[in-house]
Write a structure and sequence with these properties.
Shape: globular
Radius of gyration: 24 Å
Mean pLDDT: 88
Low-confidence stretches: none
Number of strands: 15
CATH class of the largest domain: Alpha Beta
Number of domains: 3
CATH architecture of the largest domain: 3-Layer(aba) Sandwich
Strand content: 5-15%
Length: 408
């Protein structure tokens, strides 16, 4: 199977500028392509993961990826998919975030001996002369066309700032720069980046006369179209300090039955023939598919050892047990207790099982919380110091989420 057939069969491709030419390039030539990552946080998250999977697939097929860290574009902020302007970050924050991205990407992509490049667009964007940019680049953009782009249309009602309006021009200039300096022929990205990618292709063709191409990936969404990678506590991060390997495993172990096969196709390197055979699975068989998904992804992000530990802990819990050394754990100190006790609601917030006291109250009132297998129905319920005499207290949220609490 060719790499293009693999991408197609897995449902990874959303849109292409020139399907026949792109298929020819990916199957018959060695192409330099790029994907941009704005450094808006100090860790990559699940939304970035699919892009790195595609980069890895294409690299394995002999193509050269450029991972472009947006140390320049992050100074402006991409309006795509946002109802409000992004938070402005300092140069120091952006550079720190970019270094965090770099360390994580190096686990997935082989940057040795020029097999892939990691560049920062701040190295050129931050030194551009504004008047020259307007004359050399801005002249090629139609404001009328830009305003029809989905990334701008969704913001016009609430107001689109002038700084954000420049984002498409900056990203487009990146493609021109990478084509000129590194022979980059393709820009790839999530399907929400289609308008920005088209901007770069048009600019590069108008300035250089060369043909370049664009391709977007399917966004990682549920069957209902909701973006995946979010929990009630926030994003699912690739940094183990922000989302533990066990929590990462549990996120994928708990995906809906309707979504597990699609996630296996998009995110894992499990042979497509094996995944297609799983499409006939139903009922309890789908739990096995979810286990495969969770283990494969945790192994890719956190390594074999952490994946095995998370799998063992999850199996112990699903088998009816609640004790595991690898279960997420929170350690309390005496000062966390008031008069020798702590409320269940406070404990839910402290362990991260609820983002707020209000959400904790809702969970308790709906019967979704247990302490040591005893359901809690009173929002004012407390856990006394004596409950820790056996060594630990086990909190349970819903049917599948367990958390161990220790008292030091």
């Amino acid at each position: 199977m060719t790499v293009f057939e693999e991408l197609t069969r897995r449902g990874l491709i959303a849109q292409m500028t020139h399907p026949e030419k792109i298929e020819e390039l990916l199957n018959g030539e060695k192409v330099t392509f790029y994907i941009g990552f704005d450094a808006t946080a100090d860790s990559l998250h699940v939304g970035h993961f699919l892009q790195m999977v595609v980069m890895k697939r294409l690299q394995q097929a002999g193509h050269r990826p450029i991972a472009l860290l947006g140390t320049g574009t992050t100074m402006v902020g991409d309006p795509t998919g946002k109802t409000d302007m992004r938070k402005m970050l300092s140069v120091e924050e952006i550079n720190h975030n970019a270094m965090c991205f770099k360390r994580q990407m190096e686990k997935f992509i082989d940057f040795s001996d020029g097999k892939a490049l990691m560049l920062k667009n701040g190295d050129w964007l931050l030194h551009l002369n504004y008047i020259e940019l307007l004359r050399d680049v801005g002249v090629h953009f139609s404001v009328n066309e830009m305003l029809t782009a989905e990334c701008f249309k969704t913001r016009l009602e609430k107001g689109l700032s002038f700084i954000e309006f420049n984002y498409m021009i900056m990203q487009s200039y990146d493609f021109l720069k990478l084509h000129r300096d590194y022979g980059c022929m393709m820009q790839l990205g999530g399907n929400d980046q289609w308008a920005n990618i088209l901007g770069g292709i048009k600019l590069t063709r108008r300035v250089t006369g060369d043909d370049v191409y664009g391709m977007t990936f399917t966004l990682l969404t549920t069957k209902e179209g909701k973006k995946m990678g979010k929990t009630e506590n926030g994003a699912v991060w690739l940094d183990p300090e922000k989302t533990s390997p066990y929590e990462f495993f549990q996120y994928w172990r708990n995906v809906a039955d309707d979504d597990v096969i699609n996630c296996l196709k998009l995110l894992t390197f499990v042979p497509i023939e094996e995944i297609e055979a799983m499409e006939k699975w139903e009922g309890s068989q789908l739990n096995k598919a979810k286990e495969i998904l969770a283990h494969e992804l945790t192994k890719m992000v956190h390594g074999q050892q952490e994946a095995d530990k998370a799998l063992e802990a999850a199996r112990a819990i699903f088998a009816g047990g609640t004790h595991s050394d690898d279960m997420p754990t929170t350690s309390l100190v005496s000062s966390d207790l008031a008069d020798g006790a702590i409320s269940v609601a406070d404990l839910l917030v402290k362990t991260g099982l609820a983002p707020s006291k209000g959400e904790a109250k809702r969970l308790i009132q709906q019967g979704g919380v247990s302490v040591d297998d005893v359901k809690v129905s009173d929002f004012a319920a407390v856990i006394g110091k004596e409950s820790f005499d056996k060594g630990q207290v086990i909190l349970k949220k819903g049917k599948k989420i367990y958390h161990k609490v220790l008292l030091g």
